[in-house]
Amino acid sequence: MPNRIYILTGSLHEKKLIKLLEYIGDNKSKISGILIGSKNNQSIFKKVSFRLTSFFDKVFFASLMGRLFDLIPIKNVQNSWGQKGMNSWDLLETQFNHVSHFHGVNIIHDFSISAAGFRSLGDIDDKVYVVAFTGGFFDDEILSIDNLVLLNAHMGKMPTYRGMAVIEWAVLNGETPYATAMKIAPVIDGGDVFLEKAIDIKEVDSHSELRKVGYEACLKLMAELLILISQNSQISRIQEGKGKYYYRMHSKLLSQVSGRFQKK
Amino acid sequence: MNLRLLYPSIFKNVAADYFGLTGRLVQHEESLDQTMAWIRDSFKATNDGGSSAYYHLFNGWQSSYPETTGYIIPTLLEYAEYKNDSYWNELAITAGDWLLEIQFENGAWQGGQIGNLNEPRVFNTAMILDGLCALFEFTGDQKYLNAAKRAYDWLIEVLSTKGLWEKFNVSNGGSFDLLSVACMYRVGQYYGEPDILLQKIVDAHLNFQDDNGWWSNCNFKASFENTALTHHLGYTLDGLLIIDEIRDNHENLRIVKKTALKLMSLFEVNLRLPAFVTPDFLPFYDLNKQKKTFSSCLTGNSQIAIVFLKLSLILNDLRFANTAYKLIDFNVSVSNRKYSVTGMDHGLAGSYPIYGNYQKFQYVNWAAKYHAESILIAIDKSKKRKRAE
Average pLDDT in the B326-347 region? Predict the structure, then answer.
């Protein structure tokens, strides 16, 4: 069964996409294409609901009330509870074209993020691997396609560091953070693990550096996995044991994480 | 439409909530001071020694509420220690003495606020015990403990053979009565009461928890069917942790953790805790089913934050503290609003938005109490332990 490898955009910033392609190196020719998801199909990703009832609601009245009475949107408070995951649909098509031209990888425009769209990526005999870096939330119909494997890279050891801000949580807990390349499954961060590797944070001296090192480790690991897939030599393991989930880290705890680097 | 909605302060309040606007997120300590100032005003409003049950947007301050005045007492004493200000100790003693004055002959206290539901009620009586024990521990005056013991005996007297309080009780009893038992343990430790009876009551109430960690009979009877109110979940879970504290063991830890993990996920996914929780730990959309909007119970937020802070310490699991800080942030920001009306100024409403289904249009003293207590615990200024020294 031949393997076909795709990278789904919307889950990678431009710089990260370029890095991934660089890490893949000469094996880039094995990438079947970069998929530019159609914005109309974004609804396939379940997003946190954002209530915007009308222009009057949001802009005029709220800002008037806010200015008059020193009030702020409750969303600001919620957003203060730590960084959100990556979500970049903002990469311009021209930038993709540039990346594609420079790296010699095909671009597939207006890719429909749907079961039909994913089925169209290969014949029934092909094994189709799609890098969907953020993990995302794909519907069950997509996840149940037999010959499709959606791939995610995550900054935590599985199954004990599922969820969000896990690299920070590992540092806070005094444990070594890991990069993990795995399959996306209906259980969030619960898919089979292909590769995992400790992230070296010895040289890290700030929180932003920690994130950067974490992303780089994930990109390298994903590149390594794609090379293995292109050589048909990847193996995976089922996650054993009970999963432990983490969530966005409050600033009180985040300052403890930063404090650990300052102590160094 | 109620024309009072057009009063400037009321309009500002309701409109801000409708448009999702809130006060700025200030330091927790600053919010604590604001909340305690509101509690002080609630005592001044009645002038009889008790704390006003709530400030109603349309009807103003209400009469004193014995139950919540009772459980505000330990918070007053802790705040006095934190601020090194005896004013709050005096307020606590005045409140305690008032409670002794209005105690029924049989040892119980009345159900509702003064002037309403003037009959003995189990849950309300039990809640006062914590305050009386705290006053006994602070003053050394036996009269507080004696009154608590009389109430304790009445609670035993009205217990059913099943180990439940189905008569003389809120909603004919429920899982929230685990805090009633905890308060009895609090008194019992001074009298060497047989643990076996209290354990029987605990066991009877543990049957309300299902395999998923959800609790039945954890809401008011007249409220939404088959939902648990976070305020009552807070009573239930904190009750179990207090019982463990007093017995110096962790027998209930697994039971509490099971529910707490589900509530953590519920909060973190929604970035808010719904007031009413369905058996599969999803929000019950009490505001609008079609638009999937729900209100939050601010008292429940604080109580769950308290439970999480305690769990974080016991389990050495900072995930619980992480969510607790966010829950406190939510209440800090929602309560950080200035009004020229004392009952509204920096008060904590029953619901957010204020027109939510729990204690609609009211700033309630029990929300203020639990908010203050959650901050005292978060900044490590609470005794936390209820075990007699």
Answer: 95
Confidence of residue A80 (pLDDT cuts 50, 70, 90): confident
Distances (CA, A) of A63 to A53, A178, B8, B105: 15, 44, 17, 57
| Chain A residues within 8 A of B305 when measuring between CB atoms | none
Cβ contacts (< 8 Å) between A69 and chain B: which residues? 12, 16, 21, 337-338
- Among A244, A224, A218, A227, smallest CA distance to A152 is for A218
Instruction: Give chain B's contact residues with A (Cβ, < 8 Å).
Output: 12, 15-16, 19-25, 264-265, 268, 271-272, 291-293, 318-319, 321-323, 325-326, 329-330, 333-334, 337-338
Spatial CA neighbour of B247 closest among B195, B201, B170: B195
ipTM value for the complex: 0.88
Our CA-based measurement puts residue B340 at a distance from the nearest CA of chain A, in whole angstroms, of 12
**Which of chain A's residues have a Cβ under 8 Å away from the Cβ of B323?**
247
pTM for the predicted model, two decimal places:
0.90
Indicate which CATH number applies to the domain containing B172.
1.50.10.10
Count of domains for chain B? 1
Q: Is the pLDDT of residue A188 over 70?
A: yes
Tokens 């709050």 sit at which residue? B88
- Looking at residue A124, its amino acid is I
DSSP H stretches of helix in chain A: 14-24, 55, 62-69, 74-79, 93-103, 115-119, 140-143, 166-172, 207-230, 251-263
User: Closest partner residue to B21 among A66, A245, A249, by Cβ?
Assistant: A66
- pLDDT tens digits, one per residue of A215-246: 999 999 999 999 999 998 889 999 998 899 99
The CA distance from B289 to A137, in Å, is 24
Full DSSP string of A183-232: E--SSTT-SPEEEEEE---TT--SHHHHHHHHHHHHHHHHHHHHHHHHTT
Chain B residues whose CB is inside 8 A of the A62 CB are 19-21
Name the residue among B86, B126, B102 with its Cα closest to residue B49. Answer: B102
CB-CB neighbors (< 8 A) of A248 in chain B:
268
Does B261 reside within a domain? Answer: yes
CA triple A16-A18-A20, angle to 5 deg: 70
In a domain, B387, yes or no: no
Contact B52, B60 (CB under 8 A): no
Residue of A nearest to B8 (CA): A69
Q: Has residue B383 been placed in a domain? A: no
C-beta atoms of A81 and B293 within 8 A: no
Range of the domain at B197: 3-378
Residue B384 within a domain: no
Cβ–Cβ below 8 Å for B20 and A247: no
CB atoms under 10 Å from CB of B25, counted, come to 18
Decide: A177 and A170 in contact? Cβ < 8 Å: yes
